Amino acid sequence: MATRLIVNGIDKAFDDFQALSNVSFTIEPGQFVTLLGPSGCGKTTLLRVIAGFLEPDQGEIFFGDQVMNEVPPNKRNTAMCFQSYALFPHKTVYENINFGLRMRKIKVEEQEKRVREVMEMVDLVGLEHRKPYELSGGQQQRVALARAIIVRPEILLFDEPLSNLDAKLREKVRVDIRNIQRSLGITTVYVTHDQAEALAISDVVIAMNKGKIVQKSDPKTIYNHPSTKFVADFIGSANIISGTCLEAAGSTAVVNTSLGILQVQNTGLIQGDTIFLCIRPEDIVPDVSENVLPDQNVLTGEVLNAVYMGSSLDLFIRMDTQHIVRASVAKDTWVSEGSQIRFIVHPDKICIMKG
Ligand SMILES: Nc1ncnc2c1ncn2[C@@H]1O[C@H](COP(=O)(O)OP(=O)(O)OP(=O)(O)O)[C@@H](O)[C@H]1O
Ligand SMILES: [Mg+2]
User: Fold this and answer.
1) Are 216 and 205 in contact (CB under 8 A)?
2) CA-to-CA separations, 238 to 102, 262, 277, 321, 324, in angstroms, rounded
3) With a 6 A CB cut-off, is 188 part of the ligand 1 pocket?
4) What's the pLDDT tens digit per position in 302-335?
5) Full-model pTM
6) Closest C-alpha to ligand 1, atom 28
7) In degrees, to the nearest 5, what angle opens at C-alpha 92 toward C-alphas 88 and 93?
8) How far apart are CA 51 and CA 279, in angstroms?
9) 125, burial (CB in 10 Å: exposed 0-12, middle 13-18, buried 19+)
């Protein structure tokens, strides 16, 4: 049975540096959760607190309804996969994977059966007699994964496991990890600072900054409705602009922004409110038609640069206010640098945020 993980009010300081401040969240049994945030924001520290390698100053860790604070790491039934795979260099693939079972004095026949099972699962059959140095990076990573899951942990912890792999392989192995995690249903905490990876792999993304949780949402919500400027900026690319509410009535509000006057969805705004707006580059639609609907925000600017990205064309547009907007448009859009462009931003594609 999968385990619920509860992190409750965790504080951790190193000398006078507060690495974690009042961190609380719950991960439902079998969920795959990523901790996403910039370098130094406390991701590894939090994983180490969960695994029991670090004692928190405040707060509790629960596995199910059991408080784990006093339980030593080797009794917590967690398994951890690191960026540096930490394989035993002189042991074979088989011995590396089998290590946890030997330590637990599992019967030899059972050991053999389980190693065979996980080797199939991570697609390593045939490589059992190789040493780690005779494997590719992706294969080594899969040995590390096999070694972690073979002990059937309650909680699986990953600390940037893919950062040593090239981009293509990273995409493949992350899908493998996700599929295996799903089939085993192990509650998983996965640390990354790669936002695309977090969106691709998770049930839930927890954005962290400076030792605090900023937002916890499913990937779609965190991308489409970032709650703060930090999250909007960190996840994907974003046009973040400031604005003042001129008028709010019913379901729409009118906001004076550094791009011009925009209609937005009224999320409880009051006249005079100062806010931030997030517009994703792909939500800016170039307008070539003559017919513009009254509820569309139509803006005009000058194309400073048109950058061909392969799958899209990225435009950097200078508005009359001198503000530069980034738009990501269809790759076959015809625009020339220096020309004027008219574009539309639908009110429901504008996200309103706190500062
Ligand atoms: N043992 C320690 N002693 C003193 N400071 C520490 C210790 N471990 C971590 N820190 C500090 O705590 C902060 C959080 O570190 P942590 O390793 O958790 O960051 P991270 O989010 O994992 O970053 P990265 O993405 O670079 O791995 C950092 O400022 C780090 O310097
Ligand atoms: Mg780290």
Assistant:
1) yes
2) 51, 17, 10, 18, 12
3) no
4) 999 999 999 999 999 999 889 999 999 999 888 9
5) 0.90
6) 40
7) 90
8) 39
9) exposed
Decide: helix, strand or coil at residue 37.
coil
Q: What are phi and psi of 151, to 5 degrees?
A: -85, 5
What is the whole-number distance in angstroms between the Cα of residue 46 and the centre of ligand 2? 9
Tell me: the pLDDT tens digits for 95-118? 999 998 998 888 999 999 999 988
For the chain, list the domains and their CATH numbers: 5-233 (3.40.50.300), 237-353 (2.40.50.140)
Beta strands 66-67 and 239-249 are: unpaired
Q: How far apart are the CA of 41 and the centre of ligand 1, in A? A: 7
| Helices 93-103 + 108-121 axis angle, to 10 | 130
E-strand ranges in 55-146 read 58-63, 66-67, 78-81
Under a CB-based contact definition with an 8 Å cutoff, are residues 18 and 188 in contact? no
**Using a 6 Å cutoff on CB, does residue 350 contact ligand 1?**
no
Distance from the alpha carbon of residue 200 to the mean position of ligand 1, in angstroms = 25
